[in-house]
Design brief:
By secondary structure, this protein is an alpha/beta fold. The chain contains eleven helices and twelve strands. Strands 1, 2, 3, 4, 5, 8, 9, 10, 11 and 12 form a ten-stranded mixed β-sheet that branches. Strands 6-7 form a two-stranded antiparallel ribbon.
């Protein structure tokens, strides 16, 4: 005869009770991800009806201004409130002059977006790497990237974009003092109301590879480790964040996001300012590649990643998956 075993169990937490049904799980969910959390990056180029696919980033294109407006309108209709613009110039030179030209590609794109979609928040990337023939983020002399001369051109770029109608500027160059330089230049030019989102903790990351194809911005010699951060350094990242805030940054950023969730959380515990996190090109490309091979469910893994970034403490998430994620969340 089978012997029954009667357990006299001690009291313990019954955490599964609130996981039993979809309704219960929604009721106690701690982190709510919405399309309003997203900023969608775009790569804008000269021409008409241009949609040049980026091979390493399926679903991402180099777009002419007319196509950019169409894509931005679709994203805005899904509830994505903001875009981040990167420019591909008609020509490159040693000082990246199209980047701060009043008729440059980003200035044109900003004006077109604000005319077509006045409620859309348009943010512009402030950096020289896309516009220089050497591919570095500042002025180069004798093989060295110079800090202070670069600040003058970056500040000029910020003013040009603000005058075109940009709602926010985002310096990504990692020059020391860049936020202070932009703040002073914007204020002097009558744009004291233009906020700055600093790429405060931007690391010299291997996750940027696909971006450099999309932005055509790979350095022509050396690398960017002399100004972007060492991935091993966390305390230094917090110093960079504090420096940008002291210089007048309105929003700070951690870039990339996934390998640096600890720093997003550390920043969240330390500051009250808004925090952005950049779900960068390599992170996006890995998901796309795995999904294309049937190894991962793209929808589930994308939303899980974005939720994890927000749970870590990000208020804003810059992601190439913004439109798709918004569509999934709305559905």
């Amino acid at each position: 005869m089978a012997t029954s075993t009667r357990l006299d169990l001690p009291a313990f937490a019954r955490l599964r009770r609130l996981r039993a049904t979809p309704s219960l799980r929604r009721m106690v969910r701690e982190t709510a991800l919405t399309p309003a959390d997203f900023i969608l990056p775009f790569f804008v180029t000269h021409g008409q009806d241009v949609r040049h696919p980026v091979s390493s980033m399926p679903g991402v294109f180099q777009l002419s201004v007319d196509e950019l407006v169409r894509e931005a309108r679709t994203a805005a209709g899904l509830g994505v409130p903001a875009v981040l613009l990167f420019g591909l110039p008609a020509f490159k030179d040693a000082t990246g002059s199209e980047g701060y030209a009043s008729d440059g590609i980003v200035a044109r794109a900003v004006a077109a977006l604000k005319d077509a979609l006045p409620d859309l928040t348009v943010i512009t990337d402030i950096c020289l790497c896309e516009y220089t023939d050497h591919g570095h983020c500042g002025i180069v002399r004798d093989g060295q990237v110079l800090n202070d001369p670069s600040l003058e051109l970056l500040a000029q770029m910020a003013v040009t974009h603000a005058e075109a109608g940009a709602d926010m500027v985002a310096p990504s160059d990692m020059m020391d003092g860049h936020v202070a330089a932009l703040r002073q230049a914007l204020d002097r030019a009558g744009h004291s109301g233009t906020p700055i989102m600093g790429y405060s903790a931007k690391f010299a990351s291997a996750f940027y590879g696909p971006f450099r194809e999309a932005a055509e911005s790979a350095p022509q010699f050396g690398d960017r480790r002399g100004y972007q951060m060492d991935p091993a350094n966390g305390r230094e990242a917090l110093r960079e964040i504090e420096a940008d805030l002291a210089e007048g940054a309105d929003i700070i950023m951690v870039k990339p996001a996934l390998a640096y969730l600890d720093l997003i959380r550390a920043a969240r515990d330390r500051i009250d300012h808004p925090i952005a996190a950049y779900n960068v090109s390599g992170e996006y490309a890995m998901v796309k590649a795995a999904a294309a091979n049937g190894w991962l469910d793209e929808r589930q893994i994308t939303l899980e990643i974005l939720t994890g970034i927000k749970r870590a403490g990000a208020d804003l998430i810059i992601t190439y998956a913004a439109a798709d994620a918004a569509r999934w969340l709305n559905g």
